[in-house]
Amino acid sequence: MMLDTALKEEKKFKIVMAAIKLFSRDGFYATRVPDIAKEAGMSAGNIYNYFVSKEDLARCAIRYCTNVLANKLREINEMPLSTKEKIEKFVIGYFEVVEKFPELTEFFLRVYLANREVFSKRCDDGYECAFEFIEEVQKLLEAGTAQGELKEENFHVAFSMMMGPLGCFTFLTGENVLDKRVMEYAPRIAEDIFLSLSRRKKDDHQKR
To answer: For a tag site, which of 14, 95, 190, 194 has the least CB within 10 Å?
Structure first.
């Protein structure tokens, strides 16, 4: 029974990765279920044993993409580090994912954000499709505030201040316009994110 469950999850993962690859390359609407099936090495009919529709598959794919980051941030949140150190580790980890799995970030930016109607029925209520990742970001911000390292801020504002630069550099990486590897920008980006959220003013920080 456990073997059957493991095999089923393995096949489901294979379908999701095939879908992410094709969605990110060709777009959601141009990608057909038979295309995904061919990429995954199975019949189109078999796809429907795991997902009720292409939309359902796309929603599962975005959960997978965001959970990769959620798991990474969860590990960092559990480390006995300062908020500044956690932010730096997360920024580096985020860009590691961008460089190692470009199709994941391509899918998020070019499918999830560009085709909101596909996800609106399941993903708009409380960011359901990205819930685990958003929850970990919230834990990081709340812990930093409780420890006196971060200033009190509306969560949505703080979230955008943290994720905005990361999304921007992810986009620039995908467009191949950066003059260096994105990882080389990570320490400076992490520093600026922390300063934007910190209780200390930037000038005070620079004097130290």
So the answer is: 14
Q: What does the alpha-carbon distance between residue 180 and residue 156 come to, in Å, rounded to a whole number?
A: 30
Cβ partners under 8 Å of residue 203, min gap 6: none
Is 122 domain-assigned? Answer: yes
For the stretch 4-61, pLDDT in tens is: 777 788 888 899 999 999 998 888 889 999 999 999 999 988 999 899 889 889 888 8
Provide the domain limits for residue 63. Answer: 55-207
At residue 3, φ and ψ (nearest 5 deg) are: -65, -45
| DSSP sequence for 131-186 | HHHHHHHHHHHHHHHHTTSB----HHHHHHHHHHHHHHHHHHHHTT--SS-GGGGH
